[in-house]
UniProtKB/TrEMBL annotation, chain A:
Record's keyword annotation contains Nucleotide-binding: no
Similarity remark: Belongs to the metallo-beta-lactamase superfamily. RNA-metabolizing metallo-beta-lactamase-like family. INTS11 subfamily.
One Gene Ontology CC term in the entry: nucleus
GO biological process: snRNA processing
Domain (Beta-Casp): residue spans on this chain: 245-363
Organism of this sequence: Dicrurus megarhynchus
Domain Metallo-beta-lactamase: 16-233
Entry protein name: Integrator complex subunit 11
Keywords: Cytoplasm, Hydrolase, Metal-binding, Nucleus, Zinc
InterPro entries reported in the protein's UniProt record: Beta_Casp, INTS11-like_MBL-fold, IntS11_C, MBL, Metallo-B-lactamas, RibonucZ/Hydroxyglut_hydro, RMMBL
UniProtKB/TrEMBL annotation, chain B:
Regions annotated as coiled coil: none
UniProt xrefs under InterPro entries: WD40/YVTN_repeat-like_dom_sf, WD40_repeat_dom_sf, WD40_rpt, Wdr73
Signal peptide: none
Name this protein carries in UniProt: WDR73 protein
GO-annotated cellular components: cytosol; spindle pole
An annotated GO BP: cytoplasmic microtubule organization
Length: 599, 362
């Protein structure tokens, strides 16, 4: 039976290091290659030994697909391609290709420079890895090879995030990566067409969450910023170059305008240029509203938000500053943090996850005395807040996506087994499909029922439609023909044509059976007796007595001869072709019963 | 407001019940089958005494869920057990469920408690207690009130028939005393030890047009003698009566709430006492608002009372103009935080709000 095999190497039943191996019709694809942010040792990488013990990964895998630039989906990619070894194609969307190397390099810097690790990929490895990347557009069908094709769909969540459809022949799998079904200020909602894949692989991290409304989060964020600024304090918001930063900028700009606030908002240098640059490049990736306003005026050139200069950090009075990098681990945001940390009127708002070891992570865990370079102790008196705006699909969103795509089966990753039973039942009940939740290293096999297209010869079609009732689209019609499988094509033809094409001669099969009858009379008298007997019984058949002394029943031939040793016994030779098998057997058993006495 | 959080449930609920460990339970009541019962863990912001503005965990988490074939109109946890009981149309039978959150996140249906189903009977109202044994008090009409032992399914008490009116609510005042409220407004007390007698409390003022009544009892408060707490009754026209159960011959107080008329029916009428604030009660079910009143200044005159706070959030939440404005289906008070309430509406919204006392009062 044809089947699809799925093995999560990471994110099976836990969150982090997404990496899923899929086998469809002989093609092997690796989906995502993430880093687990909670571990410091090799556990942070997916276990690639599941794939193949000895062979080369390049030979085994047909391609690798990366869904988006978050480190838990692409963080292990350079390790995988350069240190473990893979030279095949790596597919991702254009924005992901542009942003990935920046985040990977950032991450490398923290891990190696700050934490002093040695077994880690180098900057050169990141560059070499990115050389293997093939960028794809949304809804563009990409032929990986003759049989395997992939297509990216919009996933929302972050800039460039995509869901991928993997298709081999008529079997297909859709992998969602991280997605979001509700649009936000700068990204649209995920969308897929009714592609009816055999399997949909979906994340379920937030399936058990009932989210607080966006409005409430935003309102609370603005309240905090406003309160701080009103009392003369400074607000630091560390961000990555892209992503949530734009969302928050738009939010603040609108709020400042509405409330007529005067405190300055700054965007650190390099951030504006990079952000604008990328957004211009990838404008089709943001949502409809932004695209419209971008045409009128550049959405990322704000009225109230100005470029930052280092010296401004020392200015008195309230202000809000967006600065990179996002985890306060180096650079400008850390510098500003050190200047402002000692004043309790100030506030720092962390808008996302921080990796262990960074200042961001430390202060979010509650640490208030930090050791800086040169053994200096920094006392943190400023307020520390955390605000997560990251968007994942909740249970309602997952159901929506399943409704859109109409898969035949569903597989859930990213959640804890005990907490996914309810969702599994929910999906099974509503859509009547199977729902799987494998653990890491566990292979799930899904049986598929592919349709095999077969060409039928015109002659055969005409012949079959001529006999019997008219063809009805709703009723299956039984046809007889010969299936020819040559190269990779299947054809249904008539037996005669098949013989001709294959250069085979038709064989005729003839059966002959001997029946002994007790009859002392002469042969021709026996024949007459047999003839009358059969004529009487087989009224619907054509029974003939031929001049040469033989009897025919339809096309079956019966002849009588005397037994060589015994004159009292006559031997009837009954002979028929394969096509008349049924009648022939019947006649034989009839004659074996003997002739009636009377004739 | 001091605080306001809005959430959206996948399906609207008409019940919010508190469970052990600060869990909250909601359930779907739609017509199609596949209604879900969800036991939720509230976000830490709700559980702590201090209100925090920004907090990493701001969401409700579904701890476990179950699937009900019928709409769930009422749900009560059976104290000291891992069971809960639900009721709803089409008849007055009950369904018992098992919650075992540590093992699996599915609430399993155990078995139904069948009842005699006469014609035209609506769904049963329920109340639970675990004094002598886990009991569920249930009935859809005044003459069909009984107590069933949950585990053995044995009937341990049947109330004397005092009429065949439809019930709008029932409650255990203590392990022996029952309070029954009819949709007509009649309030009856019964003693489990004396199945033949039904004591009737003072009726409600008769009205020119038919109105429906529901009741609210203040049982959440610790260490208070249950019969010393007045019982509130709310009518679909907005009339509120307070009755002291020790002096059932007269009203303690009578007031009129300012509600839209004609009302939208009595389907979701709800009145409840604040467990941690003396004399404070909340009403909902008329429109998309929840009113909070201070009853300490009320008298017998039936004058219109001013609410000390009105929550309007549900009226604004909606999908913007499509269809009817949302109707608040149920509300409940937080058991510890004095001014925090939870309310749900017919559009699936779930709000958690903390109001600020207008100055001048306690």
């Amino acid at each position: 039976m044809p089947e699809i095999k799925v093995t999560p190497l990471g994110a099976g039943q836990d969150v982090g290091r997404s990496c899923i191996l899929v086998s469809v019709a002989g093609k092997n694809v690796m989906l995502d290659c993430g880093m687990h942010m909670g571990y410091n040792d090799d556990r942070r990488f997916p276990d690639f030994s599941y794939i193949t013990q000895n062979g080369r990964l390049t030979d085994f895998l047909d391609c690798v697909i990366i869904s988006h630039f978050h480190l838990d989906h692409c963080g292990a990619l350079p390790y995988f391609s350069e240190m473990v070894g893979y030279d095949g194609p790596i597919y991702m969307t254009h924005p992901t290709k542009a942003i990935c190397p920046i985040l990977l390099e950032d991450y490398r810097k923290i891990t190696v420079d700050k934490k002093g690790e040695t077994n880690f990929f180098t900057s050169q490895m990141i560059k070499d890895c990115m050389k293997k990347v093939v960028a794809v557009h949304l809804h563009q069908t990409v032929q990986v090879d003759e049989e395997l094709e992939i297509k990216a769909y919009y996933a929302g969540h972050v800039l460039g995030a995509a869901m991928f459809q993997i298709k081999v022949g008529c079997e297909s799998v859709v992998y969602t990566g991280d997605y979001n079904m509700t649009p936000d200020r700068h990204l649209g909602a995920a969308w897929i067409d009714k592609c009816r894949p055999d399997l949909l692989i979906s994340e379920s991290t937030y399936a058990t969450t009932i989210r607080d409304s966006k409005r409430c989060r935003e309102r609370d964020f603005l309240k905090k910023v406003h309160e701080t600024v009103e009392r003369g304090g400074k607000v630091l918001i560390p961000v990555f170059a892209l992503g949530r930063a734009q969302e928050l900028c738009i939010l603040l700009e609108t709020f400042w305008e509405r409330m007529n606030l005067k405190a300055p908002i700054y965007f650190s240098t390099g951030l504006t240029e990079k952000a604008n640059h990328y957004y211009k490049l990838f404008i089709t990736w943001t949502n409809q509203k932004i695209r419209k306003t971008f045409v009128q005026r550049n959405m990322f050139e704000f009225k109230h938000i100005k470029a930052f200069d280092r010296a401004f950090a020392d200015n008195p009075g309230p202000m809000v500053v967006f600065a990179t990098p996002g985890m306060l681990h180096a650079g400008q945001s850390l510098q500003i943090f050190r200047k402002w940390a000692g004043n309790e009127k100030n506030m720092v708002i962390m808008p996302g996850y921080c990796v262990q070891g960074t200042v961001g992570h430390k202060i979010l865990s509650g640490q208030r005395k930090l050791e800086m370079e040169g053994r200096q102790i920094l006392e943190v008196k400023m307020q520390v807040e955390y605000m997560s705006f990251s968007a994942h699909a909740d249970a309602k969103g997952i159901m929506q996506l399943i409704r859109q795509a109409e898969p035949r089966s569903v597989l859930l990753v990213h959640g804890e087994a005990k907490k996914m039973e309810f969702l599994k039942q929910k999906i099974e009940q509503e859509f009547h499909v199977n729902c799987y939740m494998p653990a890491n290293g566990e292979t799930t096999t899904i049986l598929t029922n592919p349709c095999i297209p077969v060409d039928i010869s015109l002659g055969l079609l005409k012949r079959e439609t001529a006999i019997g009732p008219l063809p009805d689209a709703k009723k299956p019609k039984l046809m007889h023909g010969t299936l020819l499988m040559k190269d990779n094509s299947f054809r249904l033809v008539s037996p005669e044509q098949a013989l001709k094409e294959l250069g085979l001669a038709e064989h005729q099969l003839r059966f002959t059976c001997r029946v002994h009858i007790q009859d002392p009379r002469k042969e021709h008298e026996t024949v007459l007796r047999v003839y009358n007997h059969l004529k009487g019984i087989l009224k619907d058949y054509s029974v003939q007595h031929l001049p040469d002394g033989s009897i025919t029943v339809e096309s079956i031939l019966i002849q009588a001869t005397a037994h060589s040793e015994d004159q009292g016994t006559k031997v009837l030779l009954v002979s028929w072709t394969y096509q008349d098998e049924e009648l022939g057997s019947y006649l034989t058993s009839l004659l074996k019963k003997g002739l009636p006495q009377s004739t | 407001y001091r605080d306001l959080h809005t959430f959206e449930l996948q399906a609207p609920t008409r019940l919010i019940e508190w469970a052990r460990g600060s869990r909250v339970c909601v359930a779907g009541y739609g017509q199609s089958d596949g209604n879900e019962i969800l036991q939720l863990i509230p976000p830490p912001t709700l559980l702590t005494k201090e209100t925090q503005g920004l907090c990493p965990e701001r969401d409700f988490k579904v701890e476990c869920g179950g699937f009900s074939e019928h709409p769930v109109y009422s749900l009560k946890y059976v104290p000291d057990t891992s069971l809960l009981v639900t009721s709803g149309p089409p008849d007055s039978s009950l369904q018992v469920w098992q919650v075992s959150a540590e093992d699996s996140d599915v609430i399993k249906s155990v078995s139904p408690i069948a009842t005699e189903n006469g014609t035209g009977q609506s769904w049963a109202k329920i109340a639970t207690i675990s004094a002598r044994a886990p009991w569920v008090l249930h009935g859809s009409r005044l003459d069909r009130v009984q107590i069933t032992e949950v585990e053995s399914r044995k009937n341990v008490y049947t109330a004397a028939s005092g009429g065949s009116e439809e019930l709008s609510g029932l409650a255990f005042l203590d392990c022996n005393t029952l309070l029954l409220c009819c949709a007509t407004g009649r309030l009856c007390l019964a003693d489990v030890r004396q199945p033949q007698s039904l004591v009737e409390a003072v009726s409600v003022p008769s009205a020119p047009c038919s109105e429906q009544w529901c009741m609210g009892t203040r049982l959440g408060a610790q260490g208070l003698e249950p019969s010393s707490q007045p019982v509130a009754r709310l009518s679909s026209r907005g009339l509120l009566t307070l009755t002291d159960l020790r002096k059932t011959s007269e009203f303690l107080a009578l007031a009129k709430a300012r509600v839209p008329s004609p009302g939208s029916g009595a389907e979701f009428l709800c009145v409840s006492w604040a467990p941690a604030l003396e004399g404070c009660l909340a009403i909902s079910g008329f429109d998309g608002t929840v009113h909070v009143y201070d009853t300490q200044s009320w008298d017998n005159s039936g004058r219109e009372a001013e609410p000390i706070f009105v929550h309007k959030g549900h009226a604004f939440g909606g999908a913007g103009g499509s269809g009817d404005p949302p109707l608040v289906t149920v509300h409940t008070w937080h058991l510890q935080k004095p001014r925090t309430l939870l309310s749900a509406a017919s559009d699936g919204s779930l709000h958690v709000w903390d109001w600020v006392q207008p100055c001048g009062k306690c």
